[in-house]
């Protein structure tokens, strides 16, 4: 299963639905942005799971609020589903994404 590519990821939050652009490279590096602003993603871990790939990473957001978000996602084909957990700032929420390139 291949997780590489550009992903449009949507996360429902108390501030409304947020859209992130996430790029997963062949070497496992991941980069993300929110409204054109880069989001630091130090490392991503992947492991095969069923028909897909389990991917986990941490994003350090500064906009719209300063928070560290832990992402646990399952990628199957061109679909990404999972949770985003911002600790005490908000309860874990479901996230969804689709490969766009």
Strand-residue fraction? over 45%
pLDDT averaged over residues:
86
What percentage of residues falls in helices of 4 or more residues? under 10%
Q: Main sheet: which strands, in order across?
A: 4-3-2-1-9-8-7-6-5
N→C terminal distance: 16 Å
Helix and strand run? EEEEEEEEE
What is the C-level CATH assignment?
A: Mainly Beta
Low-confidence stretches: none
- How many helices? 0
Radius of gyration: 13 Å
Number of DSSP strand runs: 9
Q: Which architecture name does CATH use?
A: Beta Barrel
Structural category is mainly beta
Outline the biggest β-sheet.
Answer: 9 strands, antiparallel
CATH topology: Lipocalin
* Overall geometric form: globular
Integer count of domains: 1
Overview of the molecule:
0% of the residues lie in helices and 65% in strands. It is globular, with a radius of gyration of 13 Å. With 101 residues, it is mainly beta. A 9-stranded antiparallel sheet has the order 4-3-2-1-9-8-7-6-5, with no helix packed on it. It has no helices and 9 strands. The model has no long low-confidence stretch (mean pLDDT 86). The two termini are 16 Å apart. The chain has one domain (5-99): Lipocalin (Beta Barrel).
Task: Give a short overview.
By secondary structure, the chain is mostly beta strands.
